[in-house]
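Example record for the data management plan.
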Amino acid sequence: MNHSKTYNAMEVKHKNGNVIIEGPIPGSELANYEFHKDLVAFRPPEQQHKALIEIADLPEGRIIIVRDMNEIVGYATFLYPDPLERWSQGNMKNLIELGAIEVAPKFRGGGVGKALLEVSMMDDAMEDFIVITTEYYWHWDLKGTKLNVWEYRKVMEKMMNAGGLEYYATDDPEISSHPANCLMAKIGKRVDQESVQQFDSLRFMNRYMY
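Corresponding structural encoding:
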């Protein structure tokens, strides 16, 4: 599998200060940056910072960051799906997951999330992959954004669309457990038909269970 990683960057003018969106960033470089204290969506900031450093050094792992001077204020992670998830069951070498995406509240809005996805997809190697993301409403910052689940889902979809990800139906029980949850994916230009069929069979694993 083509695990080459080509660095790309983009500057975004934000009302709270211009930020650089760049990546994939190696673990050694990530370790030198500070990590914003408000990046708490998945685990405490220092633990999440450590997790990003570990992911960055995996062969398929990619970390794209939003950087304010010497501080990471947002990030997106790409890696193979969790072994406990159905998406890993096919053991597909060309299926990776947008595992987490988070931007500190101060830098939300103003196109930062969209730019994160755009920079992620600038690398030509991404055309060799099926990129998926599973969106669960319980990870969303409904309180902080004051949006309801449907408004947030709309914002999320729009952001994912910027990276070429589209909605895909699935019978995955966790996704099906709430109508706002969803699976989104982007099938790279060089992905073969056999892999697409394998992905389809992972999406619908319960179709013969009556």
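Summary line stored alongside the record: The chain is about 30% helix and 25% strand.
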